[in-house]
Design a protein that fits this description.
It is built from 5 helices and 7 strands; from the N terminus they run αααααβββββββ. With 200 residues, the chain is of the alpha+beta class. The protein has 2 domains: 74 residues, 434 Repressor (Amino-terminal Domain); 85 residues, Ribbon (Umud Fragment, subunit A), CATH 2.10.109. Strands 1-2-7-3-4-5-6 form a 7-stranded antiparallel beta sheet, with no helix packed on it. Helix 1 packs across helix 5. It is globular, with a radius of gyration of 21 Å. The protein starts with 6 loop residues before the first helix and ends with a strand.
Length: 200
């Protein structure tokens, strides 16, 4: 028998998803306008999703698009709601005696995150001294996204990523005007995307 949900149930679930989306955005230190701009949406449009007033929030493709703007996944959203995707159950065997196996559910991989507190205003106004940057060592930054570069001498540099090629990394930072800086690739051990700004 099919299970029907009332409008109240759907509204409650929509609000829970919206609140989880709100929490993800705040954790990343983004405004509704900044998050929406990443996917070509207005702050009002983004706000309707956070308020649970857009039914599209239940669609997997919409969840991927919205969480992608926050450098997150639909699984991150589900975990904040307290809903973990259920394992896929195997289909019933056909009547002719053949059997098929369903795929087992695999949990999302644990993403390592590290933190770095800025001691200078080199990235102002993007991030000021005292701001804690949370970064994912296994995630490459997008254009104009914050990044942490581990240099060959072991030091860490916080910059805004512009582009890279085989020879160099091009970043902005290290000055009030966020000047362009070119770092030879041989000097950079690793580059990691900043996934959250934690301001005091």
């Amino acid at each position: 028998m099919a299970r029907f949900t009332s409008d109240d149930d759907a509204g409650t679930e929509g609000r829970a998803l919206g609140e989880a989306l709100f929490a993800l955005r705040r954790e990343r230190g983004l405004s509704q306008a900044e998050a929406g701009a990443r996917i070509g949406m207005t702050s009002q449009g983004w706000g309707l999703y956070e308020a649970g007033k857009r039914p599209g929030l239940f669609r997997p493709d919409v969840q991927r698009r919205l969480t992608g703007a926050l450098d997150a996944t639909p699984e991150d959203l589900a975990l904040l709601v307290g809903v973990v995707p259920a394992p896929v159950s195997p289909p019933k065997p056909p009547s002719d005696g053949l059997q098929a196996r369903g795929r087992a559910f695999e949990a999302a991989p644990v993403v390592e995150r590290r933190r770095l507190q800025l001691s200078t205003d080199d990235l102002a106004p993007w991030a000021a001294a005292g701001t804690v940057l949370e970064y994912a060592p296994d995630r490459w930054p997008r254009r104009d996204q914050g990044c942490i570069i581990e240099m060959d001498d072991g030091s860490l540099r916080a910059r805004l990523y512009v582009r890279s090629d085989e020879a160099e990394l091009v970043v902005r930072g290290a000055g009030a005007l966020l000047t362009i800086e070119r770092i030879p690739r041989a000097r950079a051990r690793s580059v990691a995307a900043v996934v959250a700004r934690l301001d005091d």
